[in-house]
Amino acid sequence: MGSVLHFFFALSMFAGSPALVATPSAGADTEISPSPARQLWERGQQAMRLGQSDQAIAFYEQSLSLDPQLIRAHLSLAAARLEIGDDDGACPHLGRYVEARPDETIVRGHYAELLYRLRRTHDAREQFKRFVVDAQEQGGTAAKELLHAHARLVEIAEKEEDAYAEHLNRGIGLLLLSRARAELSDEDKDLTQESLLCKAAGELTLALEERPGEARPCWYISRVWSALSQRSLAARWLREAQASDPFSYLTPAERCSLQLAVSGTSHEFGRR
Questions:
Q1: How does pLDDT run across 110-122, given as a tens digit for each residue?
Q2: Which residues are within 8 A (CB) of 234 and not within 5 positions of it... i.e. 6 or more apart?
Q3: In angstroms, what CA-CA distances link 96 with 14, 42, 258?
Q4: Are 203 and 171 a contacting pair, CB within 8 Å?
Q5: What is the pLDDT of residue 27?
Q6: What pLDDT is recorded for position 183?
Q7: Which residue has the higher pLDDT, 10 or 35?
Q8: Do the strands 20-22 and 29-31 form a parallel or antiparallel pair, or are they unpaired?
């Protein structure tokens, strides 16, 4: 929890920093004088540095009462309420921040996790799904949290008795886990990695049995067989994914990767 609070606090320090404007007389950049709402927010930040969470909350709330559009104050207030263990109080402020800053994928992941902790299963599922879409496109630090997001989606699917989502997300998670294993292993042939890939293929096949014609299981099955160096099977499932694509759901990153893979396969066979 401490690292999460540190992240929120650090992020709120820089979110929406004041604009710099040039004064006509001097021709130099000067910072706009902080508004009363901004001044109260800064006092809240100072209180947080001193470990005075309750006082910080009071300053942040006063700041928002003067300027409800001071988005950073919502993030700071969420951090302060999490500090005192008030998850319910933190949630709407974190949600307001994510709504205003939809591109901040890591914050969305924390919001999804908070919703899950509060047993708001439906809302958590939607946020984790959006996190997956954004993290796939963004890559970097966000992409490293994809395994956790799929694990949470498995747990949610189990609670909602959604067999398709359960098998699909478990299969994707196992594939991601095998890739992580491959990055850590020095062996040319890692039996643990191969076992994970085989289990992933099994889960994805079960997902496809639940919903025949869906492109996502086919796409990930093709990735599994490709990782296992089974080129003919990978190509077969790639064709299945391509055929199902117009009639089912893929994330934008998955669809782009599918099109690139199909294009690469076409060029390969064209050269033979």
A1: 999 999 999 999 9
A2: 222, 223, 225, 226
A3: 17, 20, 34
A4: yes
A5: 40
A6: 82
A7: 35
A8: antiparallel
